[in-house]
Every structure is written in C-alpha cells, then in structure tokens.
Write a structure and sequence with these properties.
Arc Repressor Mutant, subunit A, about 20% strand, Rossmann fold, about 240 residues, 8 helices, alpha/beta, 12 strands, 2 domains, four-stranded antiparallel sheet, elongated
C-alpha cells in the first residue's frame, strides 16, 4: 500500500502543486487548508508522513509538529516554509521535524527529501531502478511491438506510435504481472524536466488504448490498477 501523506498548506496553489507531485509518485495524499483541519485529519486518518507549512492560520506548523510528535514519535515530518533563514530551519528541526522544503521548491528536491525521510523513519527501500529499454521487438497480447519503427502490428494492421507510447509499452512489458505505478511510467516515458501529472499520464494511456486495444473498454494490453497505476498480464486469463 502506498504511504499516506498529509499536506497542510494554506496557500491553495502551493498545496495543490505539492499534492500533484506526490500523487504522481504514487503516494496517497490528504490535503488540509489550515492548522485546525490538519489536526483533525491527523487524528482521524493517522497519515504516515506529514508536510507542514510553518505559518498557517489556526495552528502553526511548529505547534502541529509538537502535537504530531507527541502522538506518533517516529512519523516523518517535513516543514514547508518560504523563509530561508537558518534560524527557521533550526527551530523546526529542534521541535522534532525531520527535514524542510523551502518555497519555491523543485519537483526533484521534494521527491528526494520525501524518499529520504521515508527510508530513515519508515524503513523504505530505494525505488527500483527503471529497466533499461532496447529496440528488440516484443509481443503483448495480440500485438507485435517494433520499437525501432515506432509501430505495432496486429495481424495485417500496422499502427504508428509516438516514442513516448512505445516507452510506455516497453516499461509494462518488461514487468509482466507487476503493478507499474504512474511514477515509474513517468520516469520511463517523460523527460526529467517535466512535472509529473497523473492526469497527463492517464490521458496518454486512454488515447493509446483507443488505438492499440481491440476493445478499449475491456483492455488486454494495458489494465488499470485503480489508485496505483497500470499492469500488463503476460498470460491473458480469457
């Protein structure tokens, strides 16, 4: 099961951007618009990780950290702050925070810091490496995929694909039967300077299905694992 992360941030743009990044990495995200809502969500849902804005109405991030730490001594807590002064970082860490994110933040930095505290506090192993992808043709259900030509063939029909679509198929084919998260697909098929967006990935998969699946409503090649990602079953049960 993916870790649940509580994002408490009163600025809606920052909150939604951070939540989108984390969901793109496969985390379950709960959002709070102020300190009181964050405390209520913590008490009711007991998240695995918390990202707390320092300055929030109702209850500050510092006070939330002290409360969270009293209830869950090992839960990773990261502060979100627009202040870059060293004293703010020191105060947050002395109150029990594990790390901090300074606004404006970069996508790669956020993910690296989340993974680091999860490894330290929750015992997470490193993310599995993305399988190197080559040009050798391969089959998926009734399709023959020819990466070098950016095409697939089904019987006498030839369908042209984009490079990104071929990379998606290669990634799924390389891990038959496994759940491939949206984050893994993003790392395989999108460039590093793109911000991961689950809607973009889902829309790309939807369009790809319309072109390669015999019946897009009952896909055999790309199957959805709701809330997590996608899967290719090498042996079709039907």
């Amino acid at each position: 099961m993916p870790h649940q992360i509580l994002v408490a941030e009163d600025d809606p743009n920052t909150r939604s951007a951070l939540a989108e990044v984390l969901r793109g990495e496969g985390y379950a995200v709960t959002e709070a618009a102020d300190g009181r809502q964050a405390k209520e969500l913590f008490d009711s849902e007991m998240p695995d990780i918390a990202c707390l804005d320092v300055m929030m109405p109702g209850i500050s991030g510092y006070d939330l950290c002290k409360y969270f730490r009293s209830q869950s001594p090992t839960m990773p807590i990261l502060f979100i702050t627009a202040k870059a002064e060293e004293i703010d970082k020191v105060v947050g860490l002395e109150l029990g925070g594990d790390d901090y994110i300074v606004k404006p933040f970069g996508t790669k930095e956020v993910i690296a810091r989340i993974r680091a505290v999860a490894r330290r506090s929750l015992g997470d192993s490193a993310m599995p490496p993305v399988t190197p992808l080559g040009d050798a043709p391969f089959t998926m259900a009734d399709l023959e995929v020819i990466p070098r030509e950016l095409r697939v063939r089904r019987g006498g029909e030839t369908i042209s694909l984009t490079r990104r679509e071929v990379l998606i198929l290669q990634t799924l084919s390389a891990r038959p039967g496994e759940v491939v998260t949206r984050a893994d697909l993003f790392r395989s098929a999108w460039e590093d300077d793109h911000v991961p967006n689950s809607r973009t990935i889902d829309q790309t998969i939807s369009q790809l299905r319309k072109r390669i699946e015999s019946d897009p409503k009952q896909p055999r090649v790309i199957q959805t694992v709701y809330g997590v990602g996608y899967r290719f079953e090498s042996s079709d049960p039907t």
